[in-house]
């Protein structure tokens, strides 16, 4: 029979397993049991709507057999099984599920870390065995197949005999060494404790034959050894237990195992709700965003159970988009088991549950923000963007839920700040919340207007994400304070006298300014003097709702319509250039105007539209 080779990543992982020095090798059993349970779930699901399955909940089980003579452990399930193609596809390739994104982040991790953090599925069997066979028959197929592998050199698949659908996995344990006693895994006490530790909540019985010594009936002082089949797991799902019975570790390992995260969650929320809607919910707020979080591939949703039975794997209706990062499950007796997806969407109970869950998440995030600031800021690094999108979406419909959860870096001690914190620090006489936009904080700090506002002693929020200014415009105001872009023309920082003086100056230079505007064509709507700038000769400000930053964002979108912000070129009236301009002839004035405009664009983080003209003008000036 021809031996087939594993796919490259699989081989790498397999090698890692075979040579592993990982100390918790016992997790191989958890992985096999969890696969068996998933396989049973699939067939059980089907049995709900398909009578030909011919099985009821009580019929499903997982059986472990230990054989000291042949040094084998066998894990048998009567789940959906696998066809030859599935054996090939599932066991020849690793982690289609996306639980491992091998190339990117794992190269810097050690084997031990990877194994410890992910658990690595079926292949972990090779940590304890030098040969593994998988005998499987898919439901509805009349053929069975045997998959055999002795490790990294490949595997074979051949036709085999098996009566019912399901899978039998046999591990041939490695020989004991001085350091590793693999024989331990043939002892019933050891297997019992491993199952209790990792797989207690599995919803199908995990059976093991246990030998016990019993008095012989009717005969005194006589004992016999009998074999009894025991169920090792309590089958109570973790979320149905009392909170006081569950340790933090249990919550966390359940999360990592079930939702494929290698980090502990930032927050565990276990709530038992009774009332209009009665349900148990176990929710997790992750610390880090999954690699596909901000992409179309990411599917939000919570697992939905009816009385402990899974009815949907990712129910999207239970989570609003802005909390789509939340993982977890909801178990409610109020939902019918056979409920279809379409019906579910209109289900009144479901809506009620979704509403209370949203409130609960908001409360927990608020608590985290107030009491566990560091953790919140870490969470916010990953998911703050989603909250801001939430604010922007649907014309700001959800602003009440979100406005106190968002943060920006502030010029106050360069720290993250909520809007509430900003407002509480506002100076007397400060009416607005000032913000400035740019790619990075450093670039924003180079804006002339930022310097001017800071000089007045006002705090500035740094908007560095594309969505920031859009989101804030949906919010419109916070506690009665309006948001003002420091680059907008309505900044108005000066005193009344200063404003009056400026007005006069602009009036007097009217002709010159309009000639300057003409030489710039449509690029600006106006040229005028300002007294808000300190050191810079000129800057661009925007009029109306659309800032230059928003222009940049909108025009970077796939179907951009060449939107233009209305910009004004402002000349620093306190800069020597202001006087100089007044002495120039028309031709030179035009050149100087263009140069000032180009400089202002560059300082504002925009590009110069015609670099060769820019260079020509500069060199002319130099010679
Ligand atoms: P994961 O469980 O993370 O997908 P595994 O390597 O553990 O990764 O398993 C790979 C795939 O093999 C599973 O997704 C499943 O489709 C299939 N599989 C594994 N064990 C069984 C089983 N006992 N019965 C049916 N299918 C199985």
Structural description of this entry:
The N and C termini lie far apart (84 Å). The longest helix is centred in the middle third of the chain and has 24 residues, at 348-371. The model is unreliable at 95-106 (pLDDT under 50). It contains 21 helices and 22 strands. A hairpin with a 4-residue loop joins strand 1 and strand 2. The strands form four sheets. Strands 5-4-3-6-2-1-7-8 form an eight-stranded mixed β-sheet, covered by helices on one side. It has a six-stranded mixed β-sheet with strand order 15-14-17-16-19-18, sandwiched between helices. Strands 9-10-13-11-12 form a five-stranded mixed β-sheet, with helices on both faces. It is an alpha+beta fold and 623 residues long. The chain has four domains: 8-231, Histidine kinase-like ATPase, C-terminal domain (Heat Shock Protein 90); 238-376, Ribosomal Protein S5, domain 2; 406-485, 3-Layer(aba) Sandwich (Rossmann fold), CATH 3.40.50.11260; 506-541 and 562-622, Four Helix Bundle (Hemerythrin (Met), subunit A) (Up-down Bundle). The radius of gyration is 34 Å and the shape is elongated. Adenosine-5'-diphosphate binds next to helix 2 and helix 3. Adenosine-5'-diphosphate binds at residues 31, 35-36, 39, 77, 79-82, 90-91, 95, 97, 99, 121-122, 167.
Characteristics:
623 residues, alpha+beta, Heat Shock Protein 90, Ribosomal Protein S5, domain 2, Rossmann fold, 4 domains, 8-stranded mixed β-sheet, 6-stranded mixed β-sheet, 21 helices, 37% helix, binds adenosine-5'-diphosphate
């Amino acid at each position: 029979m021809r031996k087939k080779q594993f796919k490259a990543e699989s081989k790498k992982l397999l090698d890692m397993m075979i040579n592993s020095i990982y100390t918790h090798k016992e997790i191989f059993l958890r992985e096999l049991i969890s696969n068996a349970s998933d396989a049973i779930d699939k067939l059980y699901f089907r049995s709900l709507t398909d009578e030909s399955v011919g099985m009821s909940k009580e019929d499903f089980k997982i059986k472990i057999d230990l054989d000291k003579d042949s040094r084998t452990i066998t894990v048998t399930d009567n789940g959906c099984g696998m066809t030859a193609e599935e054996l090939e596809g599932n066991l020849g390739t690793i982690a289609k599920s996306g639980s491992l994104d091998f190339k990117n982040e794992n190269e810097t991790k050690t084997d031990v870390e990877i194994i410890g953090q992910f658990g690595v599925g079926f292949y972990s069997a090779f940590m304890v065995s030098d040969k593994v066979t998988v005998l499987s028959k898919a439901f509805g197929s009349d053929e069975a197949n045997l998959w055999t592998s002795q490790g990294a050199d490949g595997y074979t698949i051949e036709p085999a005999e098996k009566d019912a659908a399901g899978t039998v996995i046999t591990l041939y344990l490695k020989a004991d060494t001085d350091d590793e006693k693999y024989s331990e895994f043939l002892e019933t006490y050891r297997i019992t404790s491993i199952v209790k530790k990792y797989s207690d909540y599995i919803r199908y019985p995990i059976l093991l034959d246990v030998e016990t010594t019993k008095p012989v009936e009717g005969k005194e002082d006589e004992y016999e050894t009998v074999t009894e089949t025991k169920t090792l797991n309590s089958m109570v799902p973790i979320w149905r237990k009392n909170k006081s019975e569950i340790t933090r570790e249990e919550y966390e390992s359940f999360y990592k195992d079930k939702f494929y995260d290698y980090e502990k969650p930032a927050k565990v929320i276990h709530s038992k709700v009774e009332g209009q809607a009665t349900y148990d919910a176990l929710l997790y707020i992750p610390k880090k965003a999954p690699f596909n979080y901000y992409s179309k591939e990411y599917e939000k949703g919570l697992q939905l159970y009816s009385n402990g039975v899974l009815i949907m794997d990712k129910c999207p209706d239970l989570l609003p988009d802005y909390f789509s990062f939340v993982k977890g499950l909801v178990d409610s007796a109020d939902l019918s088991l056979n409920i279809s997806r379409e019906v579910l969407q209109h289900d009144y109970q479901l809506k009620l549950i979704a509403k209370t869950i949203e409130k609960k998440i908001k409360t927990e995030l608020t608590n985290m923000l107030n009491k566990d600031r560091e953790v919140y800021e870490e969470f916010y690094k990953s998911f703050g963007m989603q909250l801001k999108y939430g604010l922007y979406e649907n014309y700001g419909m959800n602003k009440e839920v979100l406005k106190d959860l968002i943060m920006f870096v502030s010029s106050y001690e360069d720290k993250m700040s909520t809007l509430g914190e900003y407002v509480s620090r506002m100076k007397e006489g400060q009416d607005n919340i000032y913000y400035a936009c740019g790619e990075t904080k450093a670039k924003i700090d180079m804006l002339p207007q930022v310097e001017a506002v800071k000089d007045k002693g006002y705090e500035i929020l740094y908007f560095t994400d594309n969505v920031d200014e859009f989101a804030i415009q949906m919010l419109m105001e916070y506690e009665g304070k309006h948001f003002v872009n420091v680059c907008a023309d309505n900044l108005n920082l000066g005193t009344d006298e200063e404003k009056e003086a400026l007005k006069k100056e602009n009036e007097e230079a009217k002709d010159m300014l309009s000639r300057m505007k003409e030489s710039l064509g449509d690029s600006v709507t106006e040229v005028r003097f300002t007294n808000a700038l300190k050191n810079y000769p000129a800057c661009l400000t925007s009029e109306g709702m659309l800032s230059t930053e928003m222009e940049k964002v909108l025009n970077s979108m796939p179907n951009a319509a060449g939107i233009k912000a209305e910009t004004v070129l402002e000349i620093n009236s306190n800069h020597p250039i202001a006087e100089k301009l007044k002495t120039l002839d028309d031709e030179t004035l035009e050149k100087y105007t263009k140069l000032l405009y180009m400089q202002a664009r560059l300082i504002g983080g925009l590009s110069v539209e015609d670099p060769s003209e820019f260079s020509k003008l500069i060199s002319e000036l130099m010679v």
